[in-house]
Design goal:
The protein has 353 residues and is mainly alpha-helical. The chain has helices spanning 2-10, 12-25, 38-59, 67-70, 80-128, 170-189, 193-206, 217-224, 226-252, 257-275, 285-296, 307-323, 329-343, 347-350.
Length: 353
């Protein structure tokens, strides 16, 4: 494993090129393999896991060149950010397999177990981070020391990441393509992106373990006062919301309005608590961006049943019918609506978690 780590760190650009090539080749998968979603999703999950592990290896490159040969010391804390990224890579596969083998109703048991695991990991990460706002659901390490820090953390996560595991399905491949386009555009427009991210992670590796002093919940609330309490409330509600939503769907069904309204209420209450912090000078720019990102996630409620089946889909179909005779635009609109309708059938594509 140490030999593999050294090879990855010495060939970062080559590794990223191979990963991009492998993901691109999924578009050429013969249609006969798309008849069953399990195998394509399994291959996609493996690609995602390999990419996540390689990224973690590169980000934890030791600063001392001699350690490249002897092997860096293992960090004492559990890599929760990597774990959450891996969970995102396999959650769609879990949903597909559960639906295939156990049916539409029983699949929610497995989805609930997946969400419960993420809740526990995020709560642990929230505590270990010193009760800082989780960036991209915890997939990005929040080590900002204060506001207006120019070196913003980077991540593979984003709003549409929910659909990234579906490369081989038409919906998943299109969502993944849009995802990679946005990430590549940022890297091209900012050629120092990777060097900043690497320097950022190396700074973390240089920090001695003895210098890390994590506050307890009581000391954090005592120091921060009301703003600290609002931050904790907002984070806990953001973390727990997906699990509550899935448990309610498991009991009342996806066609019931109760899970939809309860989930929306939790989001609104949590965001109300967090919104009061936006004007605070104690928040870094990435943390402010994260709070704004969570507001954008509310758009997923339009794509979740029963709202989608009773309102959103009808309006999409009317739009498609209105534009179907317009050259090019009508064709692109039809394909986009087909993409949205197909992606909506997967909880993990629209979960916002």
């Amino acid at each position: 494993m140490e030999a593999y780590k050294r090879w990855v760190r010495r060939n970062k650009e080559y590794v990223h090129s191979l990963e991009s090539l492998a993901n691109g080749l999924t578009w050429l998968l013969p249609e006969r393999f798309s008849e069953s979603e399990i195998i394509p999703e399994a291959v996609t999950s493996i690609l995602g896991i390999v990419t996540a592990v390689n990224d973690h290896i590169i980000e934890t490159t030791p600063t001392n060149p001699s350690q490249m040969h002897t092997g860096p010391p293992e960090p004492s804390s559990f890599p929760y950010s990597l774990f959450l990224t891996l969970m995102k890579d396999v959650e769609t596969l879990v949903e597909v397999m559960a639906q295939h083998f156990y049916g539409d109703d029983n699949k929610w048991n497995f989805i609930a177990a997946t969400e419960a695991t993420k809740v526990l990991a995020r709560l642990a990460l929230l505590r270990n981070s010193g009760y800082k706002i989780l960036l991209h659901g915890g997939e990005t390490i929040n080590d900002e020391k204060g506001p207006n820090n120019a070196n913003q953390p980077q991540t593979r996560g984003h709003i549409l990441q929910q659909g990234r595991n579906g490369h081989f399905t038409y919906e998943g491949r299109a969502l993944s393509a849009m995802s990679r386009f946005g990430e590549n555009a940022r890297m091209i427009s900012d050629p120092t992106w990777f060097r900043r991210a690497e320097h950022h992670q190396r700074a973390i590796m240089q920090l001695p373990e003895t210098d890390i002093k994590r506050p307890t919940l009581l000391s954090f609330l005592s120091e921060k006062g009301l703003s600290g309490g609002l931050l904790i409330l907002g984070e806990v509600m953001f973390i727990a919301r997906p699990l509550v939503y899935v448990l309610l769907i498991r009991k009342y069904g996806s066609r019931s309005w109760l899970p939809w309204f309860v989930s929306l209420t939790i989001d609104l209450v949590g965001m109300s608590s967090s919104t009061t912090l936006l004007s605070s000078q104690n928040l870094s720019d990435p943390e402010k961006d994260e709070l704004r990102r969570r507001k954008l996630l509310l758009a997923f409620y339009l794509m979740r049943d029963p709202c989608f089946g009773k309102y959103t889909r009808q309006r999409l179909e009317r739009t498609e019918k209105t534009l179907e005779h317009v050259p090019v635009i009508g064709f692109l609109t039809a394909k986009l609506i087909e993409l949205l309708v197909g992606a909506q059938t997967r909880y993990t594509y629209m979960s916002g978690s």
